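## retry 2 of 3
previous attempt timed out at serialization; input unchanged, resubmitting
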Amino acid sequence: MAGNVNHDYHILDPDPWPLIGAASALIFTTGMVFYMHHVPATETDPAQYGFWPAILGLGIMGLIATFFMWFKNVVVEAQRGDHTPVVQLHMRYGMILFIASEVMFFVGWFWSFFDFALFPTALEYNHEAGTTTSLFGTEGAIAAFIPEGMEVLDPFSLPLLNTLILLCSGTTVTWAHHALIHGDREGLKQGLWATVALGVLFSAIQAYEYSVAPFVFGGNTYSSAFYMATGFHGFHVLIGTIFLAVCLFRAYKGHFTPRQHFGFEAAAWYWHFVDVVWLFLFIAVYIWGGWGAEYH
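## retry succeeded, writing output
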């Protein structure tokens, strides 16, 4: 019979959201470029920002709308049975590749951090001769990483507390997953509530940590690497918390079953990835990176 599906794959219906998402990303990027270059409305009145806030806002609204509508479509597809075992397998491959790309993203930050720490270098510019001299391995280069007398955060105070919070959140999300597999929907909800709460608590403590940190972004390579690495990790914690909050909402809607729950499984994978990255950050940046410096 014409129209019958005789394969295990899901053929997507025509959807405008990939195109809208791509256009919104371009508009958002354009707005950010104008913002970072402080493009004024007119040369005579630099205080006027001109049109770039509207461009940036339009891009952000388009991206948020794409996130909501595109993921809503995926949820609808899952609920009507379009996600066959073959489709779920390929979605797992996609999530694995996404997490692998995120791993390489953080590898770049760790690489730069260890390069700064193990091979300190600085450049000295001679204005008269117009030449640049490398100060590799000298005291001046070492001071460019952590200047003498600079205070760093005590790793065994707030950072250790946040480490324990994330480790606990890893156990609660595993509890929720175990409960789901065994048909315990109340355990699923309780585990997700606990994980979301711990994620919010982690973000709040890190925000407070930034507010009391004895150094600011820039000025030396340690502070720059510290804020970039921990800041991007904090952004991933925020995304993971939203991811799990959506899963909690879907759990109350009865979407997940012991045999079909890839949305929750992907969120749990992502959260475990965030936990592991933090362990490396805690050991490398907080403990090893600040070793020998004065604690705040």
